[in-house]
Amino acid sequence: xxxxxxxxxxxxxxxxxxxxxxxxxxxxxxxxxxxxxxxxxxxxxxxxxxxxxxxxxxxxxxxxxxxxxxxxxxxxxxxxxxxxxxxxxxxxxxxxxxxxxxxxxxxxxxxxxxxxxxxxxxxxxxxxxxxxxxxxxxxxxxxxxxxxxxxxxxxxxxxxxxxxxxxxxxxxxxxxxxxxxxxxxxxxxxxxxxxxxxxxxxxxxxxxxxxxxxxxxxxxxxxxxxxxxxxxxxxxxxxxxxxxxxxxxxxxxxxxxxxxxxxxxxxxxxxxxxxxxxxxxxxxxxxxxxxxxxxxxxxxxxxxxxxxxxxxxxxxxxxxxxxxxxxxxxxxxxxxxxxxxxxxxxxxxxxxxxxxxxxxxxxxxxxxxxxxxxxxxxxxxxxxxxxxxxxxxxxxxxxxxxxxxxxxxxxxxxxxxxx
Length: 419
Ligand code: PLP
Fold this sequence. Notes:
Blueprint: H1 3-10, E1 26-27, E2 30-31, E3 33-34, H2 45-58, H3 68-88, E4 96-99, H4 102-117, E5 123-127, H5 136-145, E6 148-152, H6 162-168, E7 173-179, H7 191-200, E8 204-208, H8 220-223, E9 227-231, E10 242-246, H9 248-251, E11 264-268, E12 271-274, H10 288-304, H11 306-325, E13 330-332, E14 342-347, H12 352-361, E15 364-365, E16 367-369, H13 374-380, E17 385-389, H14 396-418
Parallel strand pairs: 3-15, 5-6, 5-7, 7-8, 8-9
Antiparallel strand pairs: 1-2, 4-10, 9-10, 11-12, 13-14, 14-17, 16-17
Helix pairs in contact: 2-10, 3-10, 4-5, 11-14, 12-14
Bound molecules: pyridoxal-5'-phosphate (PLP).
């Protein structure tokens, strides 16, 4: 079998058409080509049904009731924790804290661990390719504590400068916070290496896994990180739910960051005491149905296999990269050797927003703008990019539609310029 045939075979979709009902709906009278998976993924029936079933059959508040339904809902919620533990290969379920998503998980670490442990002169190392969610919480923390940010630069391909990273590390470095996969560039960072280097100077490591968990197997123990954050909605799960993995030795010493029901052991007006983690960090009634939906999403991708999903998306990314690069006036932003599922590009003479709008008229959903990564745009001297991002349900037809859409946009702008 020659190479193109092999590629064609591995680009076959991994799902059954009926799994994703939304992909069957037309948009603007055209077949929906959904390539905005970096922003959020579509949900399989299994997830939609799991949430529906929860509300139809199992709804009650958790951890508080003595009645059967409350016990049952609590069991489902805690089974969800075990599902996340297995998914990330955490050592114990208590290392998994449910949050609203990646953003809240990072803020939790900044506000709890950060406020308790950082002081003036300490350093936090970030990279130039972070999402705003992995920048702003640290800026807020620095403003409060007097700690300082250090930023690892990136090269023209959109890869971290690892020599510069090593040079930034020193005895003042308390935390290294890095994206596993860049949402603007698609770069897959060598997080295991990065963690090992940080450990050598005694720093903790937080990995922002928002763009990784849907695209590759993740093993937090193999990475050697202290914190790993992700959102269910980028993993075929519901919005408003996600998780923070925190290594037990670190988590058990962290103070609460939000107060309320469920996170306490005792409360009196003289003072209160805290529950053990993870409850210490889950104040108030959580998103119980969301946890059930997230677990269903993890079961769904696990049944297909993250290795298979990675291979499929890699083949698709290569196909798309080749096809888009053949178009005149198109330039990729982000050409790292290790990439996952994201194609960011510029088209000469067409603003990213106009590109997005013209593609939208064809039923093609992509993202245009700075992708909440303004420092990346500054690094490349551009206002924004157009970004196509792939999921397990995309195939070559979607890439071909994208290429045809870009051609159409170019023809419109060329025609406009000629008039
Ligand atoms: N980090 C990265 C790399 C992301 O791509 C995103 C979302 O796009 C986030 C963090 C924030 O995720 P959420 O909005 O789900 O909290």
